[in-house]
Design brief:
Number of helices: 9
Radius of gyration: 29 Å
Structural class: alpha/beta
Shape: flat
Number of strands: 8
Strand order of the largest sheet: 1-4-2-3
CATH architecture of the largest domain: Alpha-Beta Complex
CATH superfamily of the largest domain: Conserved hypothetical protein from pyrococcus furiosus pfu- 392566-001, ParB domain
Number of domains: 3
CATH class of the largest domain: Alpha Beta
CATH topology of the largest domain: Conserved hypothetical protein from pyrococcus furiosus pfu- 392566-001, ParB domain
Length: about 325
């Protein structure tokens, strides 16, 4: 009879397969079917490398939950819960679900454990099974569901695996809803749109790398990379990405060029890859707005500098104590 309490188990002992939930209680997937349960040495399970990373989850194994599970397994096993899931690849068992639990078992130095073996259903690939299991919301203790970004990343790869056909939004939405999740219908629609847009980018917009954009504009008489043109202005060409690091970094180059030569810079912008045709002018205008705000800040500072040529818009503060035996304990050091 199953119980939701812990049954003590030593590090050198193994759980009793006969006390686990029956076959009907096993998780159901479109791409794979439960075959049988094995007892296997934990160190011989393929967890995908030293990081023990669930490839469907961007954040990998949750170390906080893993630490909590160490205490859980110290109490023993709960026979009402399903084991981690593996698939056999050649002679090796590859872990598809239960990365947090396996991490905790390794920390506890457990030698062997029970694992549910799944086999591929006809018409599906191992990647399909990995995605479906890896993204599905788990029903065991201390679990953490996949995020929207996880579904988007794996959804794009799923669409690209459907070679020879154009996948519709309806099919993408069906793929999402075939995997256990806790998203609302609106969230599913948003994820669907993101997957579709990224898998099938708007081909009506020409795409440029910074080098290709610079090469294109050079033929029109515009310089890039800080070089001076016939008008003696420096030229800089880059993708419009406001509220990111790219724009401010180029703005700093402009300031350094001016300090060095006293010359202004002509800024040439292009929309980054993946921009929809309807948004090209919008992203360009947003980048221009960011640059104008930075320039206006300089103009306002110039008024203060006119009254005090030594005025600076910043002061150096401190750093936390880092050098043991030199820095004050628990204090800060002036810069």
């Amino acid at each position: 009879m199953m119980t939701n309490s812990h049954t003590p188990i030593g590090r050198c002992e193994v759980p009793d397969i006969n006390r686990l939930p029956n076959r009907e209680a096993r998780r159901k997937f479109n791409s794979g079917t439960y075959s049988h349960t094995i007892v296997h040495e934990i160190e011989r399970i393929d967890v995908g490398g030293g990081t023990e990373k669930n490839t469907a989850r961007a954040e990998g194994t949750d170390t906080v939950h893993s630490d909590a599970l160490v205490g859980e397994f110290t109490k023993g096993i709960r026979y009402d819960q399903l084991p981690p899931i593996v698939v056999k690849v050649g002679s090796v068992y590859k872990l598809l679900d239960g990365f947090t639990r396996v991490s905790a078992l390794k920390t506890r130095k457990q030698e062997s454990w029970v694992f549910d073996v799944y086999e591929l259903n006809e018409g599906y690939t191992q990647e399909d099974l990995e995605d479906e299991i890896g993204l599905g919301a788990n029903d065991h203790a201390k679990c953490k569901a996949a995020t929207r970004d996880d579904f988007i990343t794996k959804g794009i790869l799923w669409v690209k695996r459907q070679s020879g056909i154009t996948v519709s939004k309806t099919q993408i939405k069906g793929w999402i809803n075939n995997i256990p999740h806790t998203f609302t219908n609106d969230q599913v629609n948003t994820i669907t749109d993101r997957i579709f847009d990224k898998a099938y980018p708007d081909t009506s917009v020409a795409t440029f790398s910074e080098a290709k954009a610079a090469e294109y504009l050079e033929k029109q008489g515009y310089t890039s990379k800080g070089e001076q043109g016939a008008d003696e202005m420096h030229g800089r060409t880059f993708a419009a990405t406001s509220n990111a690091t790219h724009g401010p970094r180029n703005f700093c180059h402009i300031l350094k060029d001016f300090k060095r030569t006293g010359k202004k810079t002509r800024v040439n912008l292009f929309a980054p890859n993946g921009t929809k045709a309807k948004d090209v002018e919008k992203v360009i205008e947003e980048q221009k707005k960011e640059f104008l705000e930075l320039a206006e800040a300089i103009q306002e500072m110039a008024v203060l500098i006119k009254g005090d040529k030594d005025w600076m818009p910043f002061e150096f503060g401190v750093r936390p104590s880092q050098l043991v035996n030199i820095d004050p304990d628990g204090g800060v050091v002036e810069l």
